[in-house]
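Why do we care about 3D structure at all? Because function follows from shape, and shape follows, mostly, from sequence. That is the central idea of this module. The next example makes it concrete: a single protein chain, its amino acid sequence, and then its structure expressed as tokens.
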Amino acid sequence: MITLLTTLALALPAQLPPVSENPYAIVGASVLDAEAGVVFARDLGSATEAALSMREALRNGSQLGPELIEVGAIIDGDPSVWPFSEACKDADAARAAVAKLADAGGDQIKLYSRLSPEAFHAAMDEARTRSLTVGGHVPDAPPTCASRSA
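And the structure:
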């Protein structure tokens, strides 16, 4: 099966703030996407509250746009790359970040490249426990055990 994802930022009107100031820039593009026939999009990381709020508005019909699968905040090492990330110094923080996003209602999680291998595996374990799909990047740090499957 092939899933086609849209690049929503291309349709943004000029008056919206840049993505760096408005991580959930999809808000301004959703009507344009619907008019173009886009019916599904996956959020690849944004401020959790804004992302889940937009998903709810689309689901209840108060906003026109595609069905969204939401990631919310990216789970990253500390310091994190993006300002809307959950910065995790260790495995316990990574597990807590996954739990926080799951409890908030995120559809899946995204792991980012600055996680330590221990934090990466802890996040994967917690996501598996909560039946969440995981996407993202392989950690920059070398693995602690080459035989461990994520």
